Amino acid sequence: MIPATIEEALSAKAKVAEMLKGSPELVATGIAVLDGGFGVKVNLRKRMASPLPADIDGVPLVVEVTGNLSIH
Amino acid sequence: MDLESATNLKRELQSIFAIRVRGVTYGKLAFGVAAPTAAADYRVAVRAPSEEDFPDEARRLVEQMTAGEADVRVVGSVRAIGAPALSANRCVSVGASIAHYLCNSAGTLGFFARRESDGAIGFVSCNHVIAAEDRGQDGDEILHPAPMDHGDRSVIGHLVKGYPLLDRTDPVVDCAFARLVSGTPYDVSSPDPEYAIVATDVPPFAEREVFKFGRTTGLTTGHITAFDLDTEIVYSHNKTICLRQQIEIDSTAASSFAVGGDSGSLVVTRLGHPVGLVCAASAAGGYKNHGLAYANPIRPVLDALGVTLLV
Questions:
Q1: CB of B281 within 8 Å of any CB in chain A?
Q2: Does A6 contact B2 at a Cβ distance shorter than 8 Å?
Q3: By Cβ atoms counted within 10 A, which residue in A3, B77, B163, B272 is the most buried?
Q4: With contacts defined as CB-CB under 8 Å, which chain B residues touch A67?
Q5: What is the DSSP string of B160-219?
Q6: Nearest residue of B to residue A17, measured between CA atoms
Q7: pLDDT tens sequence across B88-123
Q8: Which DSSP letter does residue B159 get?
Q9: What is the CATH number that goes with domain B92-189?
């Protein structure tokens, strides 16, 4: 998968956020920093029943199970 | 078990052992959640300083309550590092242990700063460290070291009103500024000359390699894995707040980039440019599944507080 530009990643992030809105597994959406460019980062509380696609409009999607975030 | 079950069970065990089990106090035991491995799902983590601190009766209770899904280890004594105590010949420095007087916890002095409106000198950390999660009032005492740390305690600062509240629409920062008490010796420079800090901040996509000085883990290194994260963060009393535009950092060593007590640490790129302020960490994910650290972007922190970073 070829890393995207920051503008492409921002656009794809908005789509992913809309797609996952209300999902109980979702913790965060953001811009992933990749070698040579950017992707979309999705952090999950736990694995989703249906896996997410590898890309959104050609922008790489990086999915990670982080559990909850808490203050430190 | 899943993460939520492990967390709930951990709290239950913590409550039981905090009170007493058949007349014996088990104050030296620590409870947490063990991250999943290839062989097991989430489990309750129990850590004891010695075998004597975790007798058979306690062990049986843990096994019963967790149905055997516990990760029990004897780890020896655990102590905080990187929390220099204030004394006549030692300055308050970046990375020091601090806390709001109401908080029975500890955080980190991130950096020293000058307020632009009147030139007052002070320091910056997280709201949840020095402003007690929006409860802090103008002039509240900031202690060094934090009450939970050892050492002669001093009031080194007074909270300044007008800090950005967490309880508002679309918060980006978890930060506050405290005025330094007059006469307090302080040192604005980096605690390690090999990891210099300069005054010019950069956005999170400018440089990947970063470091920080924290109250608990001292100097750690990592790299930025994501930014512009809109993320849920669990605060006290299980209150969840969605912070916008956060930076995600993974460790480059076999331990976490930041853990409890490191909140407020300044995240700096390897070239010395401030980039973020540590505020949270995840339970899992990242290198060796040690969890990831999260930081506010530094420019909104400086702008919201109306301060300039001192180096």
A1: yes
A2: no
A3: B163
A4: 3, 282-285, 291
A5: PS-PPPSSSSS-----EEEEEPTT--EE-S-SSTTS---S----TTS--EEEEEETTTEE
A6: B230
A7: 446 899 999 999 999 888 999 999 999 999 999 999
A8: E
A9: 2.40.10.10
The answer to whether B54 touches B48, Cβ cutoff 8 Å, is yes
* ipTM of the complex, rounded to two decimals: 0.97
Q: Helix or strand or coil: residue B77?
A: coil
User: For domain B209-305, which CATH number applies: 3.40.50.620, 2.40.10.10, 3.40.190.10, 2.40.110.10?
Assistant: 2.40.10.10
Amino acid occupying residue B276: G
Q: DSSP code of A4?
A: B
B104 contacts B147 by C-beta, under 8 angstroms:
yes
Chain A residues in contact with B5 by the CB 8 A cut-off are: none
Thinking of the domain A6-65, which architecture would CATH place it in? 2-Layer Sandwich (3.30)
Nearest CA-CA distance, residue A63 and chain B, Å: 10
